[in-house]
Amino acid sequence: MIQSGSIEEDLRILLSARRLVIGHTSFASSVAMLSTNCAASIPEGAVTKLGCLRRTARSHVVHPAEAIGFERKVSGGS
What we know:
Low-confidence stretches: 45-51, 56-61
Number of domains: 1
Distance between the termini: 28 Å
Strand content: under 5%
Number of strands: 0
Number of helices: 4
Largest sheet: none
Mean pLDDT: 57
Helix content: 55-70%
Radius of gyration: 11 Å
Structural class: mainly alpha
């Protein structure tokens, strides 16, 4: 598990490592695990890049398309 002490840094590492993960389903599972473990560190209703991750952490389910959309938001892609 990735634990740098900063959720934003953890997400950057996870998104950088996604090329090593086979398939979007595996990547989505990794995001779900990270979001579940870090949910308590994100204030309820926070308006940040991590807002969608906070919502995801509450449901403990990440659809591959949602993970891809989150990746684009964090990396600044379109």
